[in-house]
Write a structure and sequence with these properties.
Elements: H1 4-29, E1 58-61, E2 66-69, E3 79-85, E4 95-98, E5 103-106, E6 112-115, E7 120-127, E8 134-140, E9 142-148, E10 152-159, E11 170-175, E12 181-186, E13 191-197, E14 200-208, E15 211-214, E16 219-221, E17 226-236, E18 238-245, E19 254-261, E20 267-273, E21 276-281, E22 284-292, E23 295-298, E24 302-304, E25 308-314
Parallel strand pairs: 3-9, 10-17, 18-25
Antiparallel strand pairs: 1-2, 3-6, 4-5, 4-7, 7-8, 10-13, 11-12, 11-14, 14-15, 14-16, 15-17, 18-21, 19-20, 19-22, 22-23, 22-24
Length: about 325
């Protein structure tokens, strides 16, 4: 018995050590069994409140549609130009221009163009293919509807007193007012067509190298009308040299000599630099006036004929 007891104790001790080893292996191999998994901590989600939108939108209500147009945050409230045809349908791709402001843009498929101009009064020109151009004075911010009529055209030929085209590099102008006009180049055979005209009575002038002409009577066109067969006779021009001096004989540094013909609203300007200037002017009798450094002078009537002429004026 004495030999059996130590053996039993050794067996019991080995079993205990084996059990402890197995329990340690179990804890290392399956740590998730020791305790329930805990959720991974996440950073709190920050939700930014939306910024309030500026209440500068423009609401366009028309019989056929309603548009909500938001302002440009950088430029403030906008000028909204809506271009329509004579049938009330919007015109896509209409050109809206304002030369002094450098604007040249087109309307979208709703006929709308949004312009971020500062508040004020502006002049715009609107035109589109197949329609007459229109000039409008508008207020910004605001909404303006511009109706375009079907275009009118004027076509014909430019000839000299012999019935021949005087040369190349010519142009023709249809003038409705100082700012409402249409222009076209004259082809090599003297023919021209001026398009995109709005209804009205137009004065026709033509000019080129060495020649000028003006139709005596205005050409009246209605919306969509095409006037053909216009013949404009031009004449050779005279090269006029002008000399402008101060009372002490010193030349005018920068000035202008204006020639106006009696019974006509046409004017020709001769720009003066260092006392001299030149311009091509049609033959005729003209009143001459000059200005230099806010001083003016009116000269006697000047008869201009032939190939060259000279005008001399002295400021008092």
């Amino acid at each position: 018995m004495t030999n059996v007891a130590p053996t039993i104790r050794r067996l019991v001790l080995g079993a205990v050590l084996l059990a402890l080893g197995a329990l340690g292996w179990w804890f290392q191999a399956t740590p998730e069994r020791r305790a329930p998994a805990r959720p991974t901590a996440q950073a709190p989600r920050v939700v930014k409140a939306p910024k309030p939108r500026a209440k500068t939108g423009l609401r366009i209500e028309r019989p056929n549609a309603t548009f909500i147009v938001e302002a440009d945050p950088a430029n403030g409230p906008r000028l909204v130009v809506r271009v329509l045809g004579s049938d009330g349908a919007p015109i896509e791709g209409a050109e809206v221009t304002s030369a002094p402001l450098g604007l040249f843009d087109h309307t979208d498929d709703r006929g709308l163009l949004l312009i971020g101009w500062p508040p004020g009064t502006y002049t715009i020109h609107v035109s589109a293919a197949g329609h007459g151009r229109v000039r409008r004075t508008v207020e910004a911010p605001g909404i303006v509807d511009v109706a375009l009529h079907p275009e009118a055209t004027i076509s014909g030929e430019v000839v000299d007193q012999r019935g021949l085209f005087p040369g190349t590099d010519g142009s023709i102008h249809a003038i409705l007012s100082a700012e409402d006009r249409g222009s076209a180049n004259v082809s090599d055979d003297g023919r021209f067509t001026i398009d995109r005209l709005a209804p009205g009575a137009y004065e026709l002038t033509a000019d080129g190298v060495g020649w000028f002409g003006r139709l005596e009577a205005p050409v009246v066109v209605e919306a969509g009308q095409h006037v053909t067969g216009v013949q404009l006779v031009v004449r050779s021009v005279t090269l006029v040299s002008a000399r402008l001096v101060q009372a002490d004989g010193a030349p005018c540094a920068d000035g202008e000599v204006e020639l106006s013909r009696a019974g006509s609203d046409l004017r020709w300007s001769i720009w003066i630099h260092d006392g001299r200037g030149k311009a091509e002017v049609p033959p005729g009798t003209y009143a001459a006036a000059a200005v230099c450094q806010e001083r003016t002078v009116v000269g006697p009537p000047q008869k201009i004929d032939g190939t060259e002429a000279t005008i001399a004026l002295t400021l008092r």
